[in-house]
Design brief:
With 394 residues, this protein is mainly alpha-helical. It has one domain: MFS general substrate transporter like domains (Growth Hormone, Chain: A). It has 16 helices and no strands. Helix 10 packs antiparallel against helix 13, helix 11 crosses helix 13 and helix 12 runs antiparallel to helix 16. The protein is globular. Keywords: Membrane, Transmembrane, Transmembrane helix. InterPro entries: MFS, MFS-Transporter, MFS_dom, MFS_trans_sf. This is Major facilitator superfamily (MFS) profile domain-containing protein. It comes from Tistrella bauzanensis.
Length: 394
């Protein structure tokens, strides 16, 4: 293959670097903002995902025109700019940087879906999309492992500059994959047809018999996933009385297990239909039940639990809430016509990101009113209802 990059490596590089960048500011926020860190983390995360939802829907029609690899390169350049703006360190600069990171984050899933749909056999969709999406927990894990150390050694400004340099280097590296764009590029709709197309895509992913339940799963599962990332450490320290190093270690463990779960579940979904698992949609429903059980386990957790029991509950939550992504994206790619892969993935991603914003917000409201047990209980109930809805459609 020479200097050319294979499609799966292209998407994996983009997802990992963009996830690393999106996680870098929240990881460094206690150093950047001190006592205001918690508030600014919430604002930064909400702005990133709200912007990503809008751009995922509104820019997906440009991906076939630019080509998915070129789109990923532009996203990485926007991410580079976002990290440099965040270096200013003021609240407006952090919000501006969040907008740029959100602009980068929005097109990455539809671009990756379009590229893989055109280059990977349908029978390998589950594994391919799961490998592709391991970049998300992988990037978060890298942020947690690297940035506290570089910040302590060199300061947070050089740490963010380093992330910007990594994003720029990744954008340049993806030039070796530009050959993959040639058979995919096509002109987008224009004018009034484009407006109708965006609305039609959104309506389609919400109402289609197969894609609608998958979009519902994405909203709920991504909300549960972000609740884990946002609240696990504070839950373990504040409610369970655990030390910061132990709590951080369990968060890293959950991310690592999530990577493994994505690969295992993606491979398993490629075996469907089978006697055990008739369809990917049924598998998504089963994952929802596991998320409900895991969230219920977290709700029942008390300070007297053994470390082994705590670890088991956290691992189960991490595996389920992080492992679903490749299976759902593979099912979406299989359900959508190939030429509409980026449109459907873009609209579905926009819908899913609403869960990324609303899930932690709802968790925080319930937490403030009734405590961690009630908050995790709400996650469990919503996941269980979602699983039942999906299983009835499967």
């Amino acid at each position: 293959m020479g200097a050319m990059l294979p499609p799966l490596l292209v998407t994996l590089i983009a997802h990992t670097v963009l996830s690393l960048s999106a996680a870098s500011v929240p990881v460094l926020m206690p150093t950047i903002a001190g006592a205001d860190a918690a508030v600014l983390i919430g604002i930064f995360t909400a702005v990133v995902y709200a912007t990503a939802a809008a751009t995922s829907l509104c820019l997906s029609h440009l991906i076939p025109r630019l080509g998915p690899v070129r789109t990923l390169q532009l996203a990485l350049l926007a991410c580079t700019a976002g990290m440099l703006v965040c270096q200013i360190g003021t609240a407006p600069a952090l919000i501006g940087g969040a907008v740029l990171v959100g602009l980068a984050y929005g097109p990455v899933t539809p671009a990756g879906s379009l590229l893989l749909t055109f280059t990977i056999p349908v029978r390998r969709f589950g594994l391919a999309f799961s490998i592709n999406r391991t970049g998300v927990p992988g990037g978060i894990a890298l942020a947690g492992l690297i940035l506290p150390r570089t910040s302590q050694a060199y300061g947070w400004h050089p740490s963010l500059a380093g992330i910007a340099a990594v994003a720029l280097a990744a954008a340049l590296a993806l030039q070796a994959g530009r050959h993959l764009d040639r058979p995919i590029r096509r002109p987008p709709p224009s004018g009034r047809r484009l407006g109708r197309s965006l609305v039609a895509n959104l309506v389609h992913v919400l109402t289609d018999r197969t894609i609608g339940p998958l979009s519902l799963a994405s909203i709920v599962f991504l909300g549960a996933q972000n609740c884990l990332a946002a609240f696990l450490v504070v839950f373990l320290i504040g409610h369970m009385g655990m030390g910061a190093i132990e709590a951080g270690g369990l968060l890293a463990l959950a991310q690592t297990v999530g990577i493994g779960a994505r690969l295992v579940l993606g491979t398993a979904s490629d075996l469907a239909p089978s006697r055990l698992m008739p369809s990917r949609l049924m598998m998504v429903g089963v994952i929802g039940l596991v998320i409900a059980i895991a969230a219920a386990s977290m709700a029942m957790m008390e300070p007297g639990w053994s470390m082994a029991a705590i670890t088991a509950a956290v691992v189960l939550y991490g595996a389920a809430s992080l492992g679903w992504n490749g299976v759902v994206l593979a099912a979406l790619a299989q359900a959508a016509p190939r030429e509409r892969a980026s449109d459907i993935a873009g609209a579905s991603t926009a819908v899913a990101y609403s869960g990324a914003v609303a899930g932690p917000a709802l968790f925080a409201v319930v937490l403030e009113a009734a405590g961690f047990a009630a908050a995790f209980g709400v996650v469990a109930v919503i996941a269980a209802i979602t699983a039942v809805v999906i299983l009835r459609r499967a």
